[in-house]
Amino acid sequence: MEAKFLASALSFLSIFLAIYAQSLDKLVPNYDNAMHQMKFYDIRSPLVLSCNVKDGTPGGVLIWKKNGTAVTEVPSLRGRFKLIADENKFIIDKTDTNDDGKYSCEFDGESKEIEVIARVVVRVPSNTAVVEGEKMSVTCSVVGTKPELTWTFANVTLTNATDRFILKPDDNGVPNAILTLDNVTLDDRGEYKCIGRNAANVHGGNTTAPASDVTTVRVKGKFAALWPFLGICAEVLILCIIILIYEKRRNKSELEESDTDPQEQ
């Protein structure tokens, strides 16, 4: 109980000191998490960074940088951002994955860093079909800053130690992005969920929920593909029998007609 109280007290003290230190600074960025100097954004949505200059600070020019380079000199940002000098803002109207990184605002010899983090987005196929006894493989496509992926099935978190499941990284090196399962059985049918998290979930409070997507695995029986073939064969056989019966009856009818024809005088 005492340890829990001490941890809460230290956390409160850290927040208080961060706010107090911020009150002494010339520059005040619009952090989403001031303690860790972080700003979060959704990919394809606007990113707005602001760096308020305290009243009474001597005049100067606010300079924006990304990873130590002026934003005007960053090739990936060229033509994609705007600066609003009167409001001390840096804006990207339509962001992409590569817009994350360490930004900074500089004014009159003082600099403040902003760790910009892209929230995670995950995608899996809506349906995955596999034949009983074969191998299943599902890839969770993910974008965002340093994503961490987990999989669940029937409310159980899957790991490499879970039954026959194997989790592997994708071509981009994202751990646990590929879920595989050998010798699939009918019991493996159901919904598999890929869940993505990163620092935005850890430090974003209730504002950032984990990203997730679900694929429904449908397992076909070993002989599932055989039944349609057998059905076609049966239809062909029945058709052949009908034709054979028809031909026999027609030939019999023709023979009877020939027997009843009047003989020539």
UniProtKB/TrEMBL annotation:
Gene Ontology MF annotations: cell-cell adhesion mediator activity
Listed GO CC annotations: axon; plasma membrane
Parts of the chain that traverse the membrane: 225-246
Gene Ontology biological-process annotations: axon guidance; dendrite self-avoidance; homophilic cell adhesion via plasma membrane adhesion molecules
SMART domains given in the database record: IG (SM00409), IGc2 (SM00408)
Key word Transmembrane present: yes
Signal peptide (residue range): 1-21
Boundaries of every Ig-like domain copy: 29-115, 118-212
Domain of life, per lineage: Eukaryota
Entry keywords, A to Z: Immunoglobulin domain, Membrane, Signal, Transmembrane, Transmembrane helix
InterPro entries: Ig-like_dom (IPR007110), Ig-like_dom_sf (IPR036179), Ig-like_fold (IPR013783), Ig_I-set (IPR013098), Ig_sub (IPR003599), Ig_sub2 (IPR003598)
PANTHER family: BASIGIN RELATED, BASIGIN, ISOFORM G
Protein name: Basigin isoform X4
Organism, as annotated: Drosophila mauritiana
